[in-house]
Design a protein that fits this description.
By secondary structure, the protein is α+β, with helices and mostly antiparallel strands. Helix content is 42%, strand content 16%. The protein has 4 helices and 3 strands; from the N terminus they run αβββααα. It has a 3-stranded antiparallel β-sheet, with helices on one face. A hairpin with a 6-residue loop joins strand 1 and strand 2.
Amino acid sequence: MSEALYTRDILRLAVSIPHQSRLEKPDGTAEVRSRTCGSRVAADIMLSDDGTIGQLGIEVNACALGQASAAILAAEAIGKSADQVVMIRHQLAGFLDGAEDRPGDWPNMDHLMAAKEHKGRHPAILLPYDAILAAFESAATKNEAA
């Protein structure tokens, strides 16, 4: 635990989350909360014709690490499929659990490396990914009902 947890880069990301407004009529929407730390992320998505995220709205109430993680995800989410979000979440979770060497290949993911030893922060870091995936699930359920 020799690395500083709240680095300048983490704090910079935490205050620069893109797409921070809810969508008016999303295809899928979800709100998830961490039982561990109380962090909350709400995500709205509009899907493109190919099933990828065309528009994103995200609302984050989390620690700086959760906010930084949300900023990384929101910056990369447009044009991504559910499978791509599952893959990057799997890589990030594997890194936090010690099974992976790196937190993922998206830009700025390396800024999350210092959080590996802080297990209490892991749920907040993964929460934005869980919210987006739950929004995909919501969109799929809505499509099935239509």
